[in-house]
């Protein structure tokens, strides 16, 4: 009699748990729906609990980055950075290519504004503010404490390469190619590539070759030099792999993952002792978190990974 009662209670508890999971996915989908409608150039979905998929979404223009897209990337990553329902972000592009870089039509509009402005100081202000806005847009990926996995297929040119240098993890398809195209349009790259690329690929010589010549780097070379960590046969398998990796990270303590990201970014830009000081101050607080206690007990007792509350 008692065991029958327990079986019923267990079944009810499981059903409640399943319902809770369904409710959670439904709530996340609604939140993503709200975000999706908010953006004109980005498509946002939630393929797994806590995993957000952001797609550059101007396929007819090969996801060229117009002013709206620069603005929306910054807004999107800063909002997801603060959203407790989001723990990891996969970034990809819809349509034929990942992105053809800056939108020429929008760049021409900036040119038109400049030509209407007579004074050099005012013209400089227009350019300064535009470059700053675009820089901040790219840096929003790095400032977002949630890991960003970029998944590139086919072309990734100019501004698009600036974008993925600010991501945490880079995957691509075997047909992907990368091009620091700026010198070919008569400018020095100014929104992140020159600063981040040398820190991603070990060879300064290769970086300089790529930025001075604007030659294409194919997927095989990108893998060989460590720019991407995985190459997939096609886009479907890449997105599946990226989302699986994201789900794996999302199951871990958000405290551990986010403090890790903040500190790896900080340590890249500081001396070793400064990095050590930084993490010491973070962890004198974070090691008191329930996540640390629960995860340590689970590891020590060979129990499954606990579930962690939202952060
Ligand atoms: C403050 C400054 C901050 C940042 C600066 C960044 C600098 C850069 O990003 S430099 C890189 C600029 N981009 C390029 O040079 C790439 C230009 N595009 C191409 O070379 C080709 O389109 C391609 C990627 C090789 C693909 O070729 P193909 O398959 O033949 O397609 P297309 O017919 O050329 O293009 C289809 C469609 O997309 C439009 N388009 C492509 N690229 C852009 C772009 N960068 N800006 C605006 N529109 C673009 C193209 O015009 C076509 O549109 P239609 O309406 O069908 O004509």
TrEMBL record:
Q: Which UniProt keywords apply?
A: Acetylation, Fatty acid metabolism, Isomerase, Lipid metabolism, Peroxisome
Query: A single GO molecular function, which one?
Result: delta(3,5)-delta(2,4)-dienoyl-CoA isomerase activity
The reply to whether Cell membrane figures as a keyword in the UniProt entry is no
Q: Does the keyword Secreted apply?
A: no
Gene Ontology cellular component list: mitochondrion; peroxisome
Annotated NCBIfam families: PRK06142.1
Identify this protein by name: Delta(3,5)-Delta(2,4)-dienoyl-CoA isomerase, mitochondrial
Which organism is the protein's source? Zootermopsis nevadensis (Dampwood termite)
